Amino acid sequence: MRSGIIMSMLTGGILLASTVLGSGAAPADASPSSPSFASSPSPSSPPPSSASESESEWEPASAAPSASASASAEVPAEFGSDWHDPLTAAPPVTRPHVKSCQVTLAEAQFRDFTPYRGSYTPPDGCGDRWSKVVLRLDGKVKGRQFDRLGYLHVGGVEIFRTSTPEPSPDGIEWSVEKDVTRYADTFRSARDVEMLIGNVVDDTYTGVIDVKVTLTFYVGKPAATAPDRVLTLADGPGGTTLTTPRNTERLVAEVYATGSGGGCEEYWYLTVPATAPYSCRSDDGPYREVQVEVDGQPAGIAAPFPTVWTGGWSNPFLWYVVPGPRAFDIKPIEYDLTPFAGILNDGRPHRVEVSVVGVSEGRSGWSTPVNVLVWQDPGKTVVGGGLLTHEAGELTDSATYAPGTEHRVDTEGGHRLTVSGYLDTSHGRVRTTVTRALANTSAHRWTDGETLDGLDATWTDEESVTVDGRGPARTTRIHRTYTMNGTTTLGADDRLRTVLTLGDRADSVTTRNGRRTSWSRLDDTYTGDATFTVDVPRDQRHAVGTTSERYRLYGSDGCYDRRLTTRQGVLTEDHGGC
Fold first, then answer.
1. d(Cα 320, Cα 142) in Å, to the nearest integer?
2. H or E element in which residue 343 lies
3. How far is residue 181's CA from residue 52's CA, in Å, rounded to a whole number?
4. CA distance 459 to 455
5. Who contacts 141 (Cβ-Cβ below 8 Å, separation ≥6)?
6. What letter would DSSP give residue 223?
7. Geometric angle at alpha carbon 63, from 559 and 505, rounded to 5°
8. What are the pLDDT tens digits along the chain (578 aa)?
9. Euclidean distance between CA atoms 408 and 488, whole angstroms
């Protein structure tokens, strides 16, 4: 592949569990306006490129369509000037059949890097306790534009992060829905609102991104799992700090970690050691790990999700209708920090920092905004405790380069962390133990000039949380697996072809006293094969492409299964059923 051609020039700011809805207006899932989100697109490049919490629910199989009206549409020989609106196979957000109130949170047209700023007032007539809160973004854009990142903050809390689809000349519309009930504490008082989808509009890139965001509040008793408070980190002389309520009995940090900004960290999974002849190099290769530290001690580790934006892998024709997993729903990484609550409950600010392991010194490109969800003990004003165990394994990171007609880099990396702490709550002493184990293997091969560029990579992130107090111990285990297998080739006729499969999988099981009480399994798989002629005007690309997504989610709460297929931008299959 030609040097640098694989970069999606994704820029901008950002918008949690969301669904891209398609049928006329199709769905899409989506931080701070930091410089790392701002890089201008390169005119020489082709235009670039949704089980986060127990609140999530899914519709039964009968709710999924058995066929789409678009499926009967005639498939053209190649892409034209318009195509089906973006959509994903992910389940819709369920809504209770109770009284509701709606508030418009933001309404803006994004042409540059000027944030929208407004104000939020709680809904009138629906009280201040809600059974569910649903965010919806409706967007439209037409012309030519790159993929862009966006964020939405309410009172400084990041409640939504997304990237955008690339438009057709005739224009597209899409909608994203997300369950934001976890942020109910933020919505109970008037707040400032800030939103940005950083964009560049000029004579070439003409797409103005027009969006409206609403919140719908459903009256009723809040879920028992909802946090009592949502905090953000404060800037201090020694870095960012956190001060928790003194009766905190559970603590979860969520980090919206994204590599982006048009540079090499946007597709960090393809970087190679500095000694290898490739367009994007990193001192130690592609292994990345997002770490959280409390007062200088590792408190949480996680594998970042290898998001492919809607211009990624050099081929926007892969993504015009069906995006890759999470591209429109940038879920936060969650870290259970409850073992540290006994230390944090002293009423003083404590240093909390997030870093991305593997990024070369001085290189930008990562955004890591943090929210902290807090559950408080209603029976005590001060909950004491301490840290019992802190075992950090050695981080392994090996990237081996082998030269040849096809250059190759083989990577193996991993890390393990176990922390345990106790709290003396109003219902007795409770011990929480968190173990997380990460592993990454990848094989990256390419030719001189990068006319062939391929990657076969797997990431695993295993987490176990055991809560042991009064009554039987409860353990929740989650095994996450992310996969990426693809090749891009550029022929002598300047025809660029990309064949790619992406996987987002998670198995979760909760046991009490050794007996299973709940379980779920997610398998979200995307496949695509698209070809077009590079370095020619848009109407001479003669692009063809087939893409599909199958989203399966099943377990103790039910079953959901939906499959989408497109050809040349036409939706040819939309089938559901377990």
1. 12
2. helix 341-344
3. 12
4. 13
5. 164, 165, 167, 171, 172, 207, 208, 209, 210
6. P
7. 40
8. 444 444 444 544 333 334 555 433 333 333 322 222 223 333 223 333 333 333 333 443 334 454 444 455 799 999 999 999 999 999 999 999 999 999 999 999 999 999 999 999 999 999 999 999 999 999 999 999 999 999 999 999 999 999 999 999 999 999 999 999 999 999 999 999 999 999 999 999 999 999 999 999 999 998 888 999 999 999 977 789 999 999 999 999 999 999 986 689 999 999 999 999 999 999 999 999 999 999 999 999 999 999 999 989 999 999 999 999 999 889 999 999 999 999 999 999 999 999 999 998 888 889 999 999 999 999 999 999 999 999 999 999 999 999 999 999 999 999 999 999 999 999 999 999 999 999 999 999 999 999 999 999 999 999 999 999 988 999 999 999 999 999 999 999 999 999 999 999 999 999 998 899 999 999 999 999 999 999 999 889 999 999 999 999 999 999 999 999 999 999 999 999 88
9. 15
Residue 224 burial class via C-beta count within 10 angstroms: exposed 0-12, middle 13-18, buried 19 and up = exposed
Separation CA 85–CA 24 (nearest Å): 7
Question: Which positions ≥6 away from 223 have C-beta within 8 Å?
Answer: 55, 131, 181
- Contacts (Cβ under 8 Å, ≥6 apart) of 19: 27, 29, 50, 88, 90, 91, 92, 93, 176, 177, 178, 329
Q: Helices H, strands E: what count in the chain?
A: 1, 33
- Residues whose CB falls within 8 Å of the CB of residue 271, separated by 6 or more in sequence, listed in order: 264, 265, 278, 280, 281, 282, 285, 286
Taking alpha carbons only, the member of 48, 38, 70 closest to residue 4 is: 48
Q: HEC states along 143-167?
A: CCCCCEEEEEEECCEEEEEEECCCC
